[in-house]
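Onboarding guide, step 5: your first structure request.
Type a short instruction followed by the sequence, for example:

Predict the 3D structure of this protein.
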Amino acid sequence: MKVGTFYSDVEVEDHSLAPEMNDSSLSSPLTVDQLVSHFGLKDRGFDSKQMRAIEELLQRNASVFSKGDNDLGRTHLALHKIDTGSAQPVKLPPHCVPLHLQQEVAEHIKQMQERR
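The system replies with C-alpha cells like these:
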C-alpha cells in the first residue's frame, strides 16, 4: 500500500479563518485579496510578475478553497492509502467519549450528517 500525500509550500501559522472569511460569506467565492491575505503571500518576497501569476492562479481556482467548516465535501480525484508494510492494521475498539463531551460530539455528528 502507498500513502498519498499533499505537500504545500505555503504554511499558515494561524489556522483560524481570517475575519473576512467567516461562515456568513459562504455564499460567494473568496476574493483573490482575501486568499493572498490569508496565506500571507505579500510577505514572501515575490516580485510583481510572480505576484500577478499567483493572483491569476488564485482567481482561476478561487472556488476550490474552503470558506468555513461547513462547506467541505468529498472528492474522487485523490486516493488515500496507508503503507503498513507487512504488518497487519491495528484494530482497536473506539475510544469512549468523556461524559462532559458527549453532547458536543452528538451535535458535531448531527451537523456532519446534515451536510451529506
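Each response can be followed by summary notes, for example: Residues 14 and 64 are 20 Å apart (CA to CA).
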